[in-house]
Amino acid sequence: NFPLDLAAVEVTSTNG
């Protein structure tokens, strides 16, 4: 996951 997705990975994983 990208750095900008790290915070959102808990809520919603865009890249997995």
TrEMBL record:
Keywords: Chloroplast, Plastid. This is Photosystem II protein D1. It comes from Lecanthus petelotii.
